[in-house]
Specification:
Blueprint (H helix, E strand, L loop, with lengths): L22 H4 L6 E2 L2 H12 L11 H18 L6 E3 L1 H12 L8 H8 L3 E5 L2 H4 E6 L5 E8 L9 E6 L6 E15 L4 E13 L2 H10 L3 E9 L5 E9 L2 E9 L5 E3 L6 H10 L4 E4 L7
Helix pairs in contact: 2-3, 2-4, 4-5
């Protein structure tokens, strides 16, 4: 995720990996809860068995599971505690330990997130995330997620790459600042108000869709997972005044297909769950972070 981190149809995913804290933040007492590698590794191992393939960016549900798990543990310890910071070194080394990859064989998205030293901040305090649920259920857990890297000589404000491990292949662009809301409803999750990351399919039927709207910005994605690991995602892409909502099936091996396979009433039930009305008035992201 996500990282990591695309969005529903293509999954905000492990694209949104994490990073080491900038030096000026590490010693600020009480401002952040800096997680150590053992905590990150334990959360990854807890959820690793639920997903067959983590080398493509399409498996962002795993990213959400890990981040939500870490936030739940922190909330149990201190409901009003400071935001979490997850370092790029802690995340990347844990990822390698869980997947069996090395720095030479790691997928491109994970290696780039590591080399750019992207920071992830996770705020789990409800009053910092949601002002009011206007319509729909109240989430069990709501997070503000902010990912960024430091300014510096020669450091760009974005980077792009083509993920050839996903099906279809996609072009992913990470901007220097990425923000989104991550909501957990128990049996489905939502990425909302996504800013700073774009994903464009390079092949297949989804590429034809994006040819119609241009470089669409994915702003919202709802995800539910079937018992056999197939993920159903409802994703909204926007450009100017044009909005497109699509449903995709994401298979355990990372393959993404438009619409759902025939004969799967269980997946249709998940899709109906994801279609329910939802309107949330969010608290603004703090400008000093």
């Amino acid at each position: 995720m996500t990282s990591f981190q695309y969005i529903g149809s293509l999954r905000i995913a492990t694209v949104l990996c994490f990073s080491l804290l900038p030096d000026q933040l590490v010693g600020v007492e009480g401002d952040y809860n800096v997680l150590d590698r053992s905590e990150v590794l334990a959360a990854m191992r807890e959820h690793y068995g639920n997903y067959e393939e983590l080398t493509s960016t399409t498996n962002g549900a795993w990213l959400a599971d890990v981040v939500l798990s870490l936030a739940r543990q922190a909330r149990e310890r201190d409901p009003d505690g400071p935001p979490l910071f997850i370092g790029h070194e802690e995340w990347f080394r844990s990822f390698l330990a869980v997947t069996g990859h090395t720095e030479h064989t790691a997928p491109r998205y994970a290696l780039l997130n590591y080399r750019y030293e992207q920071n992830m901040e996770v705020d789990y305090r409800l009053d910092r995330v949601i002002r009011e649920v206007v319509e729909g259920p109240m989430p069990e857990l709501a997070l503000n997620v902010r990912i960024s890297w430091e300014d510096g000589p020669g450091r760009p404000d974005r980077y792009s790459y083509i993920d050839t491990l996903s099906t279809p292949t996609v072009r992913v662009t990470n901007r220097q600042m990425i923000t989104y809301r991550l909501l957990d409803f128990g049996d489905w999750i939502v990425y909302d108000e996504i800013e700073g990351i774009t994903v464009r399919p390079e092949s297949g039927v989804l590429a034809l869709l994006f040819q119609l709207i241009g470089e669409g910005h994915m702003t919202h994605s709802r995800i539910a997972v079937a018992k056999d690991g197939i993920q159903v995602a409802r994703t909204r892409a926007e450009k100017a005044y044009m909005k497109v909502m699509i449903t995709v099936a994401i298979y355990p091996d990372g393959t993404v297909e438009r619409d759902l396979p025939e004969g799967r009433t269980d997946l249709l039930e998940l899709e109906e769950r994801l279609k329910q009305p939802m309107e949330i008035d969010y608290v603004e992201f703090p400008s000093d972070r």
